[in-house]
Design goal:
alpha/beta, seven-stranded mixed β-sheet, Rossmann fold, globular
């Protein structure tokens, strides 16, 4: 049985984390969630993880967070970011090379990069006047949203959309896309066919 570690941020609700945990419990991902790692305690995501009976480790951000994150994630086959908005320390990128995934609420490479997260992304999509948006699951490297794209799901941008209505439509697809991509990467790892 594979083991996933999920890194959550200081503010998120934890909906993608919960979607991953549910997909594991339902057998859609051939793995279990071993640990949730958060920079702060008491967040909605942390409380949700505890309610689901998942181990939580708190690793505050700071100069020495790299080795502590690697230690907290020991034994994990894959690391999934769910609302974790910082660049990962080099120690983590090396320890889990090509085994760290993130989901972004737009169709990368557009509307990605430093500072592009949450409602800012949906505001930018609407300001650009594009006809569709969606979500992208990608591998994580040393650049914001810069790793290999694994999977995308698309949604229409509708007349009269607000950042909030678009975000809700994209989030539904995130909850489908992330488990699908995780299962795909685990299959690649088992088959020895994963590429950077």
């Amino acid at each position: 049985m594979h083991t996933l570690g999920i890194l959550v941020g200081p503010k998120g609700r934890g909906s993608n984390m919960a979607a991953i945990a549910c997909a594991c419990a339902e057998g859609r991902i051939p793995a279990r969630v071993g640990v949730i790692v958060s920079p702060v305690d008491g967040t909605p995501a942390v409380e949700a993880a505890r309610e689901m009976g998942i181990t939580v480790q708190v690793v505050p951000t700071g100069n020495d967070s790299g080795p502590r994150l690697v230690s907290a994630l020991q034994g994990c086959d894959l690391v999934c970011l769910a609302g974790y908005l910082r660049l990962l320390p080099n120690e983590v990128l090396r320890a889990f090379q090509n085994r760290i995934l993130n989901i972004h609420p737009a169709l990368l490479p557009r509307f990605g990069g430093k500072g592009m997260y949450g409602m800012r992304v949906h505001e930018a999509v609407l300001a650009a006047g594009v006809s569709e948006s969606g979500c992208t699951v990608h591998l994580v490297n040393e650049r914001y949203d810069g790793g290999r794209i694994l999977l995308q799901r698309r949604v229409p941008v509708l007349p009269g959309d607000t950042p909030e209505t678009l975000a809700a439509r994209v989030l539904k697809e995130e909850h489908r896309a992330y488990p699908e991509a995780i299962a795909q990467v685990l299959h690649e790892l088992e088959a020895g066919t994963q590429r950077a």
